[in-house]
Amino acid sequence: MAYGRDWAHFTRWCRLKGVDPLPPSAELIALYLSDLAAAPDGARALSAATIDRRLSGLVWNYTQRGLFLDRKSREIIAVLTEIRQRQARPPARKEAIRADEILAMTATLPHDLRGLRDRAILLLGYAGGLRRSEIVGLDLRSGDAPGSGGHVEIFQGGALVTLNGRTGRHEIEVGRGSTKRSCPVHALEQWLDFARIESGPVFTRVSRDGKRALDTRLNDRHIARLIKRTALDAGLRAELPEKDRLALFSGHSLRAGLINSIGLDGRHDPKSPEPSTADAPPRRERFRMNLTRAAGL
DNA sequence: AGTAGCAGAGGCCGAGATAG
DNA sequence: CTATCTCGGCCTCTGCTACT
């Protein structure tokens, strides 16, 4: 339970201040919260959202002890409002990546097995607007390999990515790109072919010499590192210092990039009505919304 | 609308494999 | 052997979403 750590942190703070965490006192909590926002003794200042969540943790902990902390008390409301006003700023956004930048990034990859894999990851992730965890969770065929979060099927017209999300499954159609160099489906086929992958995790580890595909699923952390490294190598935003450039690109950038380039609102809408299937061609032949072309690949 | 809870993202560090 | 590289484990922070 993550709330256990909230409690531990709070009681440590109380010890340092020489006060008793029990019984709950709104004044004490308010003091604690404002300390979190003020970054005491060199610690990093927490954001209002985190402080809010910490407060939830404390309320929960008090409740577990049969006690009641009123989070709506005047003192707490006042300090939270003050923190929010002080920190008011537009939410931090990761830099979105454009299609030409993705191509520049893939161009920095070598032509060994690892390079094929990473190229497929970048292009597929970008064209499908996938999260890093969604990318590494993909299986070939619908299987239940450990850690599976969905699967991908390849057809003539493109690839169909099916994600098993928390809120149900949804499908993403990834069409073919305008050229082989920019085509996510081609990159995927190349990787699967040379890695001799016929089932199980789509993206696996590669031996260090880049000649053999291993059978363990890739960790999602690799995606984040891949994006940052290739963005640096490709010289994107070269006018910024390296530290800023690293902070700018994250594993989220693939998703954000697609959203920008085709103007979606950032979420797949599972409630949007499926087109009538009465006389539509079979699902796998449709690829009605070519995200790949829309994304500029 | 506000809250609780979940899960995604990044930092740090170390394990394991391989190159020299 | 040591150096280097890739990647995963574990942690914290925080954004997102379901629930009330």
TrEMBL record:
Transmembrane domains' residue ranges: none
Gene Ontology MF term list: DNA binding
Keywords per UniProt: DNA recombination, DNA-binding, Plasmid
Region annotated Disordered, chain positions: 263-285
GO biological process per UniProt: DNA integration; DNA recombination
Signal sequence annotation: none
Keyword DNA-binding among record annotations: yes
Keyword Acetylation: no
Superkingdom in the source lineage: Bacteria
Tyr recombinase domain segment(s): 92-297
Full protein name: Conserved protein of DIM6/NTAB family
